[in-house]
Amino acid sequence: MNLFDITGNPFIDAGIYVLLNLTKKNDLKDLNKSDLKNSSETLVKILSDDSWRGSLTQILPNSKIANFSIKDRRGAYSKFLENLINDCSAPTPTKSCWGCNNRKGSFSSSRAEFPLTGSLKMVNFYPNWDNGIKICGSCLFSVQFATLVMSRCVDELVLLHSDSDLVMKAWTEEVMKSIRLQLSNNSFQGINYFGYKNGTNFIFYIASRIINEYDENWSEENPFIRLYFFTNFLQSPKVKFIDIPHPIFRFLAYIKQAGLNGEWQKFVHGKTKRFSRDKDKAPDEIIKIRPNPIYQRLIQEKTILYYFLDRKNHKNNVSWQLFQLYAEVVLKLKIETLEYIKNIGNLIVELMKKKESKKLLFQIEKCRNSEQLRKILIKLEKESLIYFNEPLFKVDDVATYLFPESEPYGWKEARDFLLFSIYEHGFKFFKQFVDEIKDEIIDEDEDEKEEW
Ligand SMILES: [Zn+2]
What we know:
Blueprint: H1 10-22, H2 33-47, H3 53-59, H4 73-87, E1 107-109, E2 133-135, H5 137-146, E3 151-153, E4 156-162, H6 165-185, E5 192-193, H7 199-213, E6 225-231, E7 238-244, H8 246-257, H9 261-270, H10 283-289, H11 293-299, H12 305-308, E8 309-310, E9 315-316, H13 320-329, H14 335-355, H15 359-365, H16 370-387, H17 395-402, H18 411-431, H19 434-451
Parallel strand pairs: 3-5
Antiparallel strand pairs: 1-2, 3-4, 4-6, 6-7, 8-9
The protein binds zinc ion.
């Protein structure tokens, strides 16, 4: 019978995956008491190093390992861990543990041993408004190990949680690689730090690291991934979190599968906000610390079509392949819709070539509401009848393909889809007029930014 259970609590679960990693075991049922003893010695060795001093007073304030008024912190914390190991057990008939609800809650734990748990008088995040929680040895033991996979982001602690066994194993391994190296060199660096000062950029780094470094069928995994940012100070603890939406994780997985990661990274990082004071900073540093509008919009489940278009130069910022992947996976558009838009874009470019005029293009770019877009579609239809002797649109096709009932999808997306297709087909034709176009649309473009 298992000594541990995955509970859904981020601290308990993270610790269990560290235990699996340290003991090189794949399954919970394989963890035995001797593994726990060895792992606890490793933990004490790491955490008693001076490099952890500052972080421990925040992670486990006043615990045996963080209380520097205790003469033998190492011994006291080892004893504490030993008591927990003695209590670790298979599920018991009494099921009063707050964490796993599968064993007896033999210990009364406060914020000193379990981050963010309450105390009667101080702010806490648990419902009972109780003086700590009742918890079993197995759960409390695993929480101690979560410390090793926490990292720092500005003045907050960061912990990843996922319902996916594969994600938890991959990220734990990613962090523990460095810890193992420190152990073999007997030289410790304290809490993990990846250089990120922007939490949204950090979660995207984690997701792409997992997808690109660990060979799993990620596009089918559909994991729930949440990054917690918290402080565990006694007086004013706080907690917030960021999630990666399922379709966005799947999109990143397909990007890797399609071999488009280089293009995607170049596109995304090119949009990172840069400030004049950043001129002496390395590009790698800037992408870790400055806001990235693409990531921000993806996290909020807003479309990023606007960023695919380079209106000033009349061209697209990404390939049709990447655009199609985004449209299919994130916007959930059908392949027939994309084929239709591709074809219509081509016909509109042919029309402009025939007229030897780019005016239609300016008019589409200048559409600022659904009424304007409707007018331009009618105009395109009329001109198609004149120049091609046949209609461009059929009523049913417009409803089905140009304005599909899919969220988030409206007139703005329809316009940007048309523009993407038009740029794709007409870039060479428009290139000769780039300067003229720049003059004409630059102010409109600024307006558009305001809207977003
Ligand atoms: Zn428990």
